[in-house]
Amino acid sequence: MKITRIEHISDGTVNYGGLVLIINFFKRAGQNKAAKESSQKSHAHIHISDFDVLATYCCLLAQGKSDYEHVRVFKDDGSFTTLTGLKQVPSAETLRQRLDLIGKNKRFVEAIRECSINFWKKSEREPGTEPIGGEEYVRLDIDTV
After folding, report:
1. Residue closest to 87 by CA, chosen among 62, 113, 53
2. In terms of Cα–Cα distance, which of 17, 51, 16, 30 is closest to 3?
3. DSSP per-residue string spanning 48-71
4. Angle, helices 106-123/19-29, rounded to nearest 10 degrees
5. Distance (Å, rounded) from C-alpha 87 to C-alpha 89?
6. CA dihedral of 32, 33, 39, 40, whole degrees rounded to 10
7. What are phi and psi of 6, to 5 degrees?
8. Whether 81 contacts 89, CB under 8 Å
9. pLDDT value at position 97?
10. 130, 36 in Cβ contact below 8 A?
11. CA distance 128 to 135
12. Alpha carbon of residue 81 to chain centroid
């Protein structure tokens, strides 16, 4: 799905349209390719790809939902899967278990880091930093309020 316009609406509603940006960022960084390779090597018998697992959780985080149980709302939501292009949304249990497996796969974790670097290079931008105590730190903002 191609994004042609981005608008900010301040009425308090959560719109799935912004999630398309997250999926596009993942793909632009090459995360879908890295996840496909990981899925094929480590657990080819599993029907939900590592990409769908990571993308689903990042979409939850983008909406301020950090608990695995929050995925239940999207499990059978056709709009969510259509807009994000995900093949399947994992259950809360699968999401938790698979993220744990992904975190233990050192090769895949390194591929995720490489994807992040590739994304910054392709976007020709620098991540924002914050000076603290004479050192520069990259800002991470996960707001669950």
Report:
1. 53
2. 17
3. S-HHHHHHHHHHHHHTT--SGGGG
4. 100
5. 7
6. 150
7. -125, 130
8. yes
9. 92
10. no
11. 13
12. 14
Assigned token pair, 75: 């499990």
Residues composing the chain:
145
Name which residue leads in pLDDT, 57 or 28. Answer: 57
What is the average pLDDT score of the chain?
78
How far apart CA 23 and CA 56 sit, in angstroms, is 9
Parallel, antiparallel, or unpaired: how do β-strands 135-138 and 129-132 relate? Answer: antiparallel
Give me 25's structure tokens.
Answer: 């960022």
- Alpha-carbon distances of 62 from 38, 65, 127, 131, rounded to whole Å: 24, 7, 18, 25
Q: Look up residue 102 and give its amino acid.
A: I
Q: Where are the alpha helices (DSSP H) in the chain?
A: 19-29, 31-42, 50-62, 72-75, 78-84, 92-104, 106-123
CA angle at 57 for the pair 7 and 16, rounded to the nearest 5°: 25
The pTM (predicted TM-score) of the whole model is 0.69
Q: What is the pLDDT of residues 8-56, one digit of tens each?
A: 666 555 567 678 877 887 788 787 777 777 765 555 456 788 888 888 9
Q: CA triplet 66, 85, 142: central angle to 5 degrees?
A: 25
pLDDT at 95: 92
